[in-house]
Design a protein that fits this description.
This protein is mainly β and about 650 residues long. It has three helices and 42 strands. The chain has one domain: Beta Barrel (Maltoporin, Chain A), CATH 2.40.170. The two termini are about 25 Å apart.
Length: about 650
């Protein structure tokens, strides 16, 4: 709680604050600095953080509302969450802040609960073929969090069930002529002791079923983000810094509870970016430093029976240089990025080094936009490759791989957009997969890099904007075949071991319908159907569904408002049952969750007050077939609603939020 006290002093000592979640600010349909989905061949969804978003929405819930995304939670608000895109693993998705990567290839998955939604103006979800300007070639795609522009101050206080408290504030002001500064602070605490259903692992025995409290599930977190931007006339320079301090309990699997395991995390990211216009050449250069430190401690039996106290430090230094020439029908460009990563782990009980590794990574991409047919057709070829050198456990491995891509954009009518993409991708195993992490994952230093070929086609149709509103429909199909896909396989101790599978493929259909009706109704619906097949020839895996890829996912959000004085909203998400392991033995039940919120603000000068309820119908269990492997068994049983490898989700949760401009 010392983190909370420190941040409270900082927050209430500030004199000017800027927009937190934009609850009372009307954001136009598309900001000038946000990508236009109709002008790029890549499949991208732009999610504005505006008045349609409930104050109870966290980053994971917002990202989950984009089509093609799957969010995995290890509990409720504040617990670990990760995102996969189009059937990818979480580690195949890169997360960026203003284009600066938090997890460039080979570093690991990002915990979305570490990133407060109020720090950003909008979120971009790039599915599949992300632009070369990111300096990245992720298999799944890119989630880019944009701080945006803020011209006023704002404060926010949240409170609710499970002793949940959130304090947020931000300040924006010019500090010198042509120089502006942005500061955002956020503090979060939750006890996390929600009630859940426990069947004690006995599916056929109902007499030992009981309700328990989720102990050792508390989280304390403080984060700070600052940005300094200077106008250079024909360009700009930006300095971005973000710091995270987090401490939490690790309660473990529903059948392997732990009341002593703790994890402390510290993360610091700093970058300097220069953008310069030397017409017709546009130049960007960026330097980035990332440091992440984590300490795991459990003096009891532990989540990991071989590890009771350990820490790990990751240092990453990255550079990027990009230039493109703006011409009427041809926009050629070159992007080069490189980085060096270093990881070292220690056993704190013996004070010995448990793991040490370094990685050098160099990406190069020659790309162009070829504009044809009166700007109705754009072809985007990308000739790319990567050089990778790993040094670990006394051995050095070097790889040089081509990763070409091709995009096509066709606009036969101003209201119709057609897209197609194909690309080859590669991802090396990250350090957590090689050496283990926080007692929940055992390392495997024999892992091979993942390779994949991704293809997608999609279309968008819009209606003209009128007094009646507007409608946008997106539909698409994606297909990916991969070799050596890395999945987490659960062992008998309920911890996970990363393992390479043989050939796998994933294909699916996605659709999104957005409606703005009569100026007072907002509705967004997404649907994703994903088929996945494991082609690994081992008998236990052959033709199985891939772990943690549900067949169906649906998200629906609708809200009605009266001049933003009152807004009533409802959200619904459905995630089909999916398997925790490659053998398709452990299956989580489907999740069918509703939420509602009511916000009131009589005038813009008044504070905004909102009440919201998550998991409205308190769904903690689902009735499922008792033995799905036996077609003759028609019995049914009660199964707890769980997520990743059996982590229970909370029931009904109430939150109240108060925010105001200053």
């Amino acid at each position: 709680m010392h983190l909370m006290s420190l941040l409270c002093t900082l927050l209430f000592g500030s004199s000017a604050f800027a927009d937190d979640e934009g609850l009372t600010v009307v954001v136009e349909d598309q900001r000038a600095d946000a990508p236009d989905p109709n002008a790029t061949s890549s499949s991208v969804t732009v999610l504005p953080i505006d008045e349609t978003v409930s104050a109870s929405t966290d980053l994971a819930a917002l990202v989950e509302s984009a089509t093609g995304t799957t969010v995995t939670r290890l509990g409720g608000l504040g617990d670990y969450t990760s995102v996969s895109i189009r059937g990818s693993t979480a580690r195949q998705v890169q997360v960026h802040i203003d284009g600066v990567p938090l997890n460039p290839d080979g570093i690991g998955a990002v915990n979305l609960s570490e990133l407060p939604l109020g720090a950003f103006e909008h979120v971009e979800v790039w599915r599949g073929n992300a632009p070369a300007s990111f300096g990245a070639l992720p298999i799944g795609g890119v989630v880019n969090l944009v701080t945006g522009e803020q011209d006023h101050g704002r404060m926010r206080i949240d409170g609710g069930s499970l002793e949940t408290v959130r304090l947020g504030a931000s300040a924006s002001a010019p500090v010198l002529p042509g120089v502006d500064a942005l500061f955002i602070a956020d503090a979060f605490h939750t006890d996390g002791a929600f009630e859940y259903f426990d069947d004690n692992g006995t599916v056929f025995q109902l007499f030992d079923d009981q309700h328990r409290s989720r102990l050792n599930n508390d989280t304390q977190q403080a984060s700070f983000t600052s940005r300094l931007r200077a106008d250079l006339g024909r360009g700009s320079i930006q300095v971005l810094e973000t710091t995270l301090l987090r401490e939490e309990g690790l309660p473990g699997h529903i059948q392997a509870r732990n009341e002593a395991a703790r994890l402390d995390t510290r993360r610091h990211l700093a970058s300097v970016q220069l953008d310069q216009s030397l017409a017709p050449v546009q130049v960007q250069a960026r330097a980035r430093v990332l440091r992440r430190y984590s300490k795991y401690e459990d003096r009891t039996v532990g989540l990991d029976r071989d590890q009771h106290a350990a820490d790990g430090a990751l240092d990453s230094l990255g550079l990027l240089a990009s230039a493109h020439v703006v011409r009427p029908h041809l926009v050629p460009g070159l992007t080069v990025s490189g980085r060096r990563d270093r990881y070292q782990g220690r056993d704190l009980l013996s004070d010995t080094t448990s793991a040490r590794a370094t990685r050098a990574h160099l990406d190069g991409a020659l790309h162009a936009d070829v504009v044809l047919w009166g700007e109705r057709v754009t072809v985007t070829p990308v000739l790319a490759g990567l050089w990778l050198q790993d040094a670990q456990s006394g051995k050095t491995i070097t790889r040089l791989e081509p990763t070409p891509r091709l995009g096509l954009l066709v606009r036969p009518h101003e209201l119709v957009t057609l897209k197609a993409n194909v690309g080859r991708y590669l991802r090396p195993p990250d350090f957590d997969e090689l050496f283990g992490d926080s007692g929940a994952i055992h390392g495997n230093d024999e892992l091979l890099p993942e390779e994949g070929l991704h293809v997608d086609v999609s279309g968008r149709v819009r209606t003209p904007t009128s007094s009646l509103g507007s409608v946008t429909l997106d539909v698409g199909h994606f297909w990916m075949v991969s070799e050596n896909r890395i999945v987490l396989v659960q062992n008998s101790q309920r911890t996970s071991v990363p393992t390479n599978l043989g050939e796998t493929w994933v294909q699916g259909l996605e659709a999104a319908l957005t409606i703005d009706a009569l100026g007072w109704v907002d509705s967004a619906t997404t649907l994703t159907r994903t088929l996945s097949v494991n082609l690994d020839e081992r008998d236990a895996y052959w033709q199985n569904q891939l772990p943690r890829i549900p067949l169906w996912e649906v998200s629906q959000r609708t809200s009605v408002h009266w001049d933003e004085r009152v807004r009533l909203g409802h959200g619904w998400s459905y995630t089909d049952g999916n398997y925790w392991d490659a053998t398709n033995w452990y299956e989580s039940p489907p999740r069918n969750l509703h939420s509602v919120f009511l916000r009131a603000q009589p005038t813009p000068a008044w504070p905004s007050l909102e009440a919201s309820v998550l998991n409205l119908f308190d769904r903690q269990v689902e009735v499922v077939p008792r033995n799905r492997l036996d077609p003759d068994d028609t019995g049914r049983t009660v199964q707890p609603v769980t997520d990743f490898v059996g982590y229970p989700l909370p029931g009904r949760t109430l939150l109240v939020s108060l925010s105001w401009e200053v």
